[in-house]
């Protein structure tokens, strides 16, 4: 009997919007002063001084296929890429604004906050007090900083910065590890929701100088101990020494990994994606696509490059020849093993549920503010679109 290859049926309501060329030149505003506001409008952004990054409101993956108004988040993204915001930082991942009423402001007390519907979300340190004037700056590094302003108008001490509170992305100049703050990356819940997912990337908190990916706080992957400028289990992370400088610092006071660009024209990001893969991306010379290297504990099958890669232990009914592959279509005479509306599940949990169920041939995901996951069993007929 021919072996059955499992399929993942992914029905996302994502679409990408192109930036619309306006008939006027956009004024570059990279500072937010006390009392000033950013509204949830297409034209209302902060733009870093040389135009590398934008800060404003956005919706990941645009609107949902369920006809519900998209959640709105305050984030930072590369301003010159053609697709709709691909955020490198999200200010309010756990507390979205449910409509376009949000206003971002720096108040008279020196606090960065989102105001909507009579409520407020504090972005900067809520316990921080300032005695003088402060201003927020969007830097060309992608860092958003809040700093004091001296009496003669020159920038003073940095009070808060977004690089201390990363989302799923490590940008050049960011530090991963402990330097007063314990900085880790968190995978997104789904492609449409920046709520923290199952995976977390950070520096080993024990004595070893290595990177670790945890899944549900259990060690999922390790890089191997840093030696001679490289991680032995993931040498691909540090091969581009022509473009980057890589540094691992470890002493009694701090322990962190960072990288920097040798040329400021190089755009790069490390992303911990929903599947627990570490993506190292460099913007291609055409300026529109990313050249990406994937680091993962999984071994990829060259015959099915789109196969979902979550490391799972073999079961009594599955072996290395079976794959879960994203595809589009529908199931005729579908038979459900179960349906799960658990709001704590992410995409990797759906994969694990199907993999561990010997009758499962695939699962369907509707993702917006939650995941709806019917799991299909053998006997269902798949009809591709």
TrEMBL record:
<dbReference type="InterPro" id="IPR001480">
    <property type="entry name" value="Bulb-type_lectin_dom"/>
</dbReference>
<keyword id="KW-0732">Signal</keyword>
<dbReference type="InterPro" id="IPR036426">
    <property type="entry name" value="Bulb-type_lectin_dom_sf"/>
</dbReference>
<keyword id="KW-0808">Transferase</keyword>
<dbReference type="GO" id="GO:0016301">
    <property type="term" value="F:kinase activity"/>
</dbReference>
<feature type="domain" description="Bulb-type lectin">
    <location>
        <begin position="29"/>
        <end position="159"/>
    </location>
</feature>
<dbReference type="GO" id="GO:0030246">
    <property type="term" value="F:carbohydrate binding"/>
</dbReference>
<keyword id="KW-0430">Lectin</keyword>
<keyword id="KW-1015">Disulfide bond</keyword>
<protein>
    <submittedName>
        <fullName>G-type lectin S-receptor-like serine/threonine-protein kinase</fullName>
    </submittedName>
</protein>
<keyword id="KW-0675">Receptor</keyword>
<feature type="signal peptide">
    <location>
        <begin position="1"/>
        <end position="25"/>
    </location>
</feature>
<dbReference type="GO" id="GO:0048544">
    <property type="term" value="P:recognition of pollen"/>
</dbReference>
<dbReference type="InterPro" id="IPR000858">
    <property type="entry name" value="S_locus_glycoprot_dom"/>
</dbReference>
<dbReference type="Pfam" id="PF00954">
    <property type="entry name" value="S_locus_glycop"/>
</dbReference>
<keyword id="KW-0418">Kinase</keyword>
<dbReference type="Pfam" id="PF01453">
    <property type="entry name" value="B_lectin"/>
</dbReference>
<keyword id="KW-0325">Glycoprotein</keyword>
